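CORE FACILITY INTAKE
Project code: CF-77B
Contact: R.S. (postdoc)
Sample description: multi-component assembly, two entities in total
Requested service: structural model of the whole complex
Turnaround: standard
Below are the sequence entries exactly as provided by the requester. Do not edit them.
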Amino acid sequence: MLNYIWGFMIIVGILFGALNGTIPDITDAALNSAKDAVTLCITMTGVMSLWVGLMEIAKNTGLIRSLTRKLQPFIDFMFPNIPKGHIAREHISTNIIANILGLGWAATPAGLKAMEALQELNKGKNIASTEMCTFLIINISSLQLIPVNVIAYRSQYGSVNPVGIVGPALLATICSTLAGILFAKIMAVKK
Amino acid sequence: MQILYYISELMIPLIIFYIVGYGIIVKANIYDDFVKGAADGFKTVIQIMPTLVGLMVAVGILRASGFLEFISTYIGVFTNKISFPAELVPLSLIRMFSSSAATGIVLDIFQEFGPDSKIGTMASIIVSCTESCFYTMSVYFVAAKVTKSRYTLAGALLATAAGIGASVFLTNKM
């Protein structure tokens, strides 16, 4: 899958650039994007170390376990095949809560750890497990309650009512998440 | 509104304070735990770094070529019929690849049409209810060393479409 998407983006980009006269821009874009990726990783390494470090403390003091318990019914419903007490439950719970609160910097580390834990249950196969599919679909369906960034940009650009979009955005988020959950559930049962 | 900003500013220090404070109260080995976790987090990022380079280069090439704008003008002819403004087609496409690129486009839209215009409002809602699905999928699957993603993309696109559909509907109702 990724082979095609990745290859498609590059081939189409270069071919179209040649026809469109944007070849010089493409060279710049390729080199700068590679540099940006490394810069991003360096920032992310710091954030990730900080967050996973804090999570290790929270895990050993039992904070995460009490958090996981609150989300238990939801996790049981969405991921019936993850054994009780497995570490994947903790990472998934942390990721979902961080996403709901809009803490992207905390959601990604927990999400990556969740995928590693799910892969452990998947016994290292290179085919995604049903749990992985469900987890990613929920994740991508967007869970954020209050789009703080968007509100900030709106007020920066002189909106009369920057928070006016909070209600509709929440409704739209609920729609996308419900669609995702429904689809993931149907596909999981079908298997 | 002020309260909202205040809460989001306070959130991170509060979480750190709570975790560390609780660790001290229960007399956990907090510093050693932190360092152990930090090393773990470090390793995860290093693992996904090559993927990120590959992915961002591909997205960069596609954006620089002008292909997305080209496609948008054609898709725009159809989307106008379902009261979806052509100006928002590039945003919807790029949103699926990169959050920061999408933010750039939203700011352009705010600049040109104003955040309170119909297009500005719709753009605000769209970016609020969607995620960068290609980016998230590739990074997460690489972390798990999975190459076959089965129906994940279909589900992700469906959720994204539902979000965009809801954004258009709600904006037209506002």
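Facility notes:
- The mean pLDDT of chain B is 87.
- The first helix of chain B runs from residue 2 to 25.
Invoice: internal transfer
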